[in-house]
Amino acid sequence: MASSQKHVFSLTGVLYQLERLEARDQRSAKPQDEHQGLQDSETDLEAKIRKLRKLRDELRTKVKLHEASARIPITNLEPYEPLKNSEENLEMKLEKAKAFFQAFHLTGLSGKLTTKGVCICFSTAFEGNILDSYYVDLIIKKPLTIHRHSVPVFIPLEQIAAKYLETNFQHFVYSLSEHLNAYSGRKYQADQLQCGFSAFLARPLQRNSLCTLLSFTYTTDPSGKSFPFCARLVYQDLTTTLPTNVTITYQGTGATPASWEDQRAAHEPLFYKNALYKVFESFLRVREN
Amino acid sequence: MDEIVAEFIRRTILKIPVAEIGKILRIWNFLSESQLKTINLQQCKENVSQDVVELCKKKRASMKEAAILDIIYHQTCQIKKIWIVYKMTKAPGEEVDLSDMEEFKASFKKVLQRALKNVHISFRDSEDDAVWIRIAWGTPYMKPNQYKTTYVVYHSQTPFVFISHCQIKKYIPELWQALMTAGNYHKIRQMELRSLYLDSLKAIVFKQYNQDFQTYYLTPLEEENSEAEIVDPRIIHENMKEKERIQRVTRETFGDYVQPRIEFAQYKLETKFKTDCKNGILAEREEPFRCLVKFSSPHLLEALKSLAPAGIADAPLSPLLTCIPHKAMNYFTIREK
């Protein structure tokens, strides 16, 4: 906490008395066992929180790896076999290198060498739409440092770098790419909702910088005949583009009508499983039918 | 309606340029469209503001609505206010939290009002998802002074806060405490960065000024037609090469786009005086020679960018000048290494 030291020079009088009282108070505050006991249990709880968070992160990575291993691994190459003809050797190497670059291009990662290191470009995309690109300029020396970057300030770049940059560079790139793609995807969904489906929104969309908390009031009928639904979408996991928590509440006065309840029960799972604009596209289709 | 509120609204309308009055009143959304139509914007400003005050009296505007009008005026028009950037840090081990803006506002208001009596706080969200906080300070014996206000601009989930230069300095610690508690931060410090242009400060600090990362792969510029005064082809070639080099270096340093706008950069030197002349009163002194160098310009970074191409300075420029946006500083203290 920002605090300033105050030096009060006083020789006599009220100020002097106050200083003495303050000093006495500070002295008596020091040896307090139960205060110490409370502090100890506080640090214990903090350590416990950190342990649980670590466990949660490990479980999340395990789930992700499990999902990823179900896909065809593009970086799995056959073991290298020495060929008789050295030219064929070279051609095969070239083909494999080209395949590598193609594969990495699909992931949106590319890099260029600079005078002091390398500049990595993270191109993000969501559901087939190409979105913003972000750059990280690294200087290759011990320790590896980030010279400049265009990553938004609310992406936890320092935390990801602190965890992986020195120890596991691939993981650093992968984790940052995950965060950036997820942020781009969430932002894209929020922007699409705000611009494309503003007729459905009774109140403008409210979001925070990371787009991990979206709150809006919508109706299924833009002409205003149906009841409004007040939705609050929470994205606890910074690396996902689908919400982890969806709450839909009733904003009007009086008891909630039964039809509203049915609709709410139908809408909630839609928000969990589909991108925002897809949900509203489905509302549009229902209305047109 | 209070006379104080009426006077405040009248004075606020007088400050707004005539072209913007209609727009701002519409954004304010306190007077209805039909009421707005009755205001003749062609008459002199005194009368316009009088009309607005009359309409507000009918609708019984309170200080709360008048404060919102003030915020909208500040958000829409370029007000000459110096903005200072502050950076908050979290305790180590804290994660990025969810940051509900409504909770932030409620918490901020609660903490500040608990610390200070008689403070008037208003909030308004801006288009770029930031919250503008307007604070009018009072004392335990005086109502808040609505004419000496402090503005705070905050984007959720970022550690940066922009505070307009506050004439009332004694409440700054309470303001910081409220910001840190509401935003869930641990420490706050003032950055060495200030300017009249809030948007430029945001661009620098959020790195939105299109830093050109492609500068490494650019081919040298195509040479434009230069005057054919000098006949010797070798001389022309040297000039061309030098020009190209300067352009390339300038491009690598500053990029292709418009720089963020700041008005000055200040360097406080606490280094020893260096001179070739061995005699002289300033030579060979142990104590540092303290001096202050201040560069000012309506658009400082663009001016620096044009120095080398104009031939006034050598390229590359001193890194002390070119690091301003990257380091997000325009106040420097340079000491002996």
Automatic annotation (TrEMBL), chain B:
Main location per the UniProt record: nucleus
UniProt keywords (A-Z) are: Centromere, Chromosome, Nucleus
UniProt-annotated location(s):
Chromosome, Centromere; Nucleus
Biological process terms from the Gene Ontology for this record are: CENP-A containing chromatin assembly; chromosome segregation
> What GO CC terms are in its UniProt record?
inner kinetochore; nucleoplasm
Q: Which Pfam families match?
A: CENP-N (PF05238)
Q: Does the keyword Nucleus apply?
A: yes
Q: Does the keyword Transmembrane apply?
A: no
Could you say which protein family the record assigns here? Belongs to the CENP-N/CHL4 family.
Question: What is the designated name of this protein?
Answer: Centromere protein N
Q: Which organism is it from?
A: Vombatus ursinus (Common wombat)
